[in-house]
Amino acid sequence: MRNLLTLFDLSPEEIQRIFAITEDLKTKFASGLREPLLPGRVMGLLFEKPSLRTRVSFQAGMVHLGGSSMFLGDDTGFGKRESIADFAQVLSQYVDVICVRAFKQQVVDELAHYASCSVINCLTDEAHPCQALADLYTLRELFGTFEGRTLVYVGDGNNVARSLAVGCNKVGMKLVMVSPPGYELDEEFLDRLKREVPGAEVTLTNDPAEGVRDATAVYTDVWASMGQESQQQERRKIFADYQVNAELMSHAPDDAVFMHCLPAHRGDEVTGEVLDSPRSVVIRQAGNRLHVQKGLLAWLLGAMT
Ligand code: CP
Ligand code: NVA
Predict the structure, then answer these.
(1) Active-site position among 96, 125, 135, 221
(2) How much is the pTM?
(3) Average of pLDDT values for 151-162?
(4) Nearest ligand 2 atom, CA 262
(5) Range of the domain at 117
(6) Nearest-CA residue for atom 2 of ligand 2
């Protein structure tokens, strides 16, 4: 039984295998075929934070695969009525996979520790592994190969940035992180990355124009993540010079694409002009959340090894 708690859990070969399954399922889906690889399987979803993409793509994906899903709302009392240990041991007798979005990574880790079924991290303050998998899959679709390609992330060293850093290093894509001083990827994470991913490298810079120079893709995310709303005004000032706008994109190669995990705050981390431009692949990224998570589910639940 396997979990996806962070991308550290997957080997480079496993990521490529998930991408191969995804490609197959996506091609079949485009021709109208929904292969029922997981008949009778049940997914339970626990979300402490809002979600459109993650929640709906997981639920729809499970139905495409012949299974079903249950969104477990506040009435189950997750984190309130009983211990996580009791909750996990009980729930995992009913469902085959638990998809969880929580503030603390520790909550997801604890749930996985006590559950007797697979657990998938659907975003914590620390990581967003499903997002990074879909982003890398999107780049693979667009460019065919990761070798010699560079992802430039401009913004906060947050959950999305961390998962992209692990993912890029696992698939062999170069990563440049452009953040204001004090908002870079944290030392503890960088130490773990170097310890757990052989040869891992991240170029850190505070200079956006210099940072995007060799970009295959320029990626950004919100300046204040869910749970940091009270810091929004302060962060707006700190990140003002890190907006992805037409001027910044003019420093990137002409064929560089723009990426964002969405939801976007137009006028903050990205202008509407860039977000809606022909270089933007954000809608395709969001669409691939569905396909990659179907690949992940089929692989994780053993229907495709
Ligand atoms: N990108 C992403 O995870 O979106 P949601 O918060 O809508 O799930
Ligand atoms: N960093 C953002 C990602 C949202 C998908 C957040 O955690 O709110």
Answers:
(1) 221
(2) 0.98
(3) 98
(4) 5
(5) 7-128+286-300
(6) 225
